[in-house]
Amino acid sequence: MGRTTRTLKTAARTASKVVFAAADPFFGVFPGPRILIYHQIDAGLGRQMEVTKAAFVSQLDWMDANGVVVDLDAALAARSTAHAERRFVITFDDGYDDFYRHGYPELVKRSMPFVLYLTTQPVDTGVPLFPGGRAEPLTWDQVGEMLTSGLMTLGAHTHTHLDFRTAGTEQIEHELGTSDELIRTRTGVTPHHFAYPWGYWSQAGDAAVRSRYATATVGTGAPITADSDPMLLNRVAVQRGDGVVFFTRKMRTGMRLEDVVRRRLAHYTGP
């Protein structure tokens, strides 16, 4: 991709985010704690699921100045209290080495808790979830080190990152069982929290997920309130194009039109 093409794509993405932000008043208030989705930091891939380290540091500083970063259980316990919208939960999906190198030290420096939703096959085999380089997985030793910090909640994210919308109940049970057993065997932790791969809920997986975990997150949905189903918790995706300006807007008002558009482009009709 040439520089001109990249510049045009960046300009178009920024313009779309301006429109998404302008639409926020039509969606009403955005109550409840914010559960943030991160993936990679400074991987050099240029994908929207990756943020720069500079942006990540600025976002942590903003959260520290405008509220408090808490663990998932604490956020849900306080979801109907005053100023619940100032509670932030930092979550990372999949389990990439660049998070350990660039993100984890910043969280330790600030004593900020976080959730790691781990996809176990890449960690167990050393084979990246997405081939092509710059997506190297964590090692079990790194996972263990982060657990000993006392800051990390270890959650499940299946074994192979299977999209549950394309799978049957038997395959889903295998994914969940393999993942849970590997996490227990390698770390001694029984995961109580789950994130649906790609953020997509499926009817086929709902019962199996509910039988295994205390909470489950999707990548979309309504704000988190006292009436929210803990097995269908909304998370807010943090993207490369957010920087600090649009990140701030997402934290305050949700930029929910962006979420609606993303759902439609992915042909996702779930909660």
Strand content is 5-15%
Q: The CATH topology is what?
A: TIM Barrel
Level of helix content? Answer: 40-55%
The domain count comes to 1
Q: How many H/I helices?
A: 10
Largest sheet: 6 strands, parallel
Features:
271 residues, alpha/beta, TIM Barrel, six-stranded parallel beta sheet, three-stranded parallel beta sheet, 10 helices
Task: List the SSEs and their pairings.
Elements: H1 3-22, E1 34-38, E2 40-41, E3 50-51, H2 53-66, E4 68-69, H3 72-77, E5 87-94, H4 97-110, E6 114-118, H5 120-125, H6 140-148, E7 152-156, H7 169-187, E8 193-195, H8 203-212, E9 215-218, E10 233-234, E11 236-237, H9 245-253, H10 256-265
Parallel strand pairs: 1-5, 1-11, 2-3, 4-5, 5-6, 6-7, 8-9, 9-10
Helix pairs in contact: 2-4, 7-8
Give your account of this protein's structure.
- Helix content is 43%, strand content 15%.
- The chain has 10 helices and 11 strands.
- Strand 4, helix 3 and strand 5 form a beta-alpha-beta unit.
- Helix 2 packs parallel to helix 4 and helix 7 runs parallel beside helix 8.
Short summary:
The chain is of the alpha/beta class and 271 residues long. The chain has helices at 3-22, 53-66, 72-77, 97-110, 120-125, 140-148, 169-187, 203-212, 245-253, 256-265; strands spanning 34-38, 40-41, 50-51, 68-69, 87-94, 114-118, 152-156, 193-195, 215-218, 233-234, 236-237.
